[in-house]
Fold this protein.
Amino acid sequence: MREKLELQGGAGRLEGDLYLPEGTAPFPTVILCHGLTSCKENYADVAEALQQEGFAALAYDCRGHGASEGGLDGDAWRDVGTVLEYCRRHPRVDAKRIGLLGASMGAHDGLRAAAEYALLRTVVAFCTAPGALLKMGLLNSAYWRSIAAVGGRVRVVLPDYLTYLEGEDIFGLPRRIQPRPMLFIHARDDEFIPYAVSERLYGAAGGESRLLLLDSGGHRGPRHDPKVQRQVADWLKEKL
């Protein structure tokens, strides 16, 4: 079962899809956060895989992306808070078992949000994008040509978003999230973000957190790999 959602966020309307599993509610729930120029539809397979494992999954378009309103700015991570509040009040969601899965910019926003919202019990972070690399992408014409070739789109608020990226240190976030566990996943052949980023985040996390390094898959492949999805589901069953 999939429900279309419209939520009122800090930058206007947020569009989302809520995937509900069969069975007896309330369900453990995972918020899905996409990357720069992506959209919720690119996470449908992840949501469906989690749905089959008994999780509710909510994929949404970040501000400035997809069908959502507004523009990408320094408060974009607060969209997680809007979605989290919706989940907390939903009668079929177990408010004590909510986690987050994000990739690239979505992992960045997810970690930032988890540092602020204690209701998030765990974060699964694929190829987390640090601010410096997001800034490089925004200022790189070759990057935009490659994105245009595959239909990616985003509306960016400048200079606000660049100012945010210059001041944000994601490597300090794991210590703020502890002792909640985090799962970091990265492919060694990622063409955009070095896997050393996830190694460094994992080193700062400690405790029950885990690092999963893959030999291949590039930047986008790991989250679509059924074997990796299976490992993510196992992690979430244990931690939520």
User: Anything to note?
Assistant: The chain has ten helices and eight strands. The mean pLDDT is 96. The radius of gyration is 16 Å. The CA atoms of residues 38 and 203 lie 28 Å apart.
